[in-house]
Amino acid sequence: MSNTPSDSPADRGTSTDTDTDTNAGTARNRNVLNTDAMQWLSALVALVGLWLVASPFLLESTDAAIWNDTLVGTAIFLLAGYNFYRLTRDRLANVSLASLAALLGLWIAISPAVIEMGSGTLATSTTLSGIAVAALSAYSAYANNNADAPERARTRA
Question: Where is composition skewed (Low complexity) in this entry (predicted)?
Fold first, then answer.
């Protein structure tokens, strides 16, 4: 078994196209990102942001937890929503905004240790939501940063 990571397009979540540089006459590889798949990822992050906004009102919470989850959840929703919009327009997601969403996800994951949440259920929900946002947004930032061009999935007849 090899210890080297696989560089196949399927493992990276991207496909590789070969472009010919007409000036130099040489071929180069491009990393092309499937924007359809990344749209789902951004939509999922946005939905988790909405859950963060709603959860303190549905579960027992303190005022600090309401402010924290509402403000950070709204920010996550807006950041992921903007990247979703960019991806629907066949553009790559904004790496800086995805990175900021990942950082906000890390904050929301550790916030129950810093802020009194009011209930263990809300604390658990907030932590798990933060971990999900951080992981998904970090992957989005990584994939979009490594991509050279966006591409929609083609339908097969």
Answer: 11-28
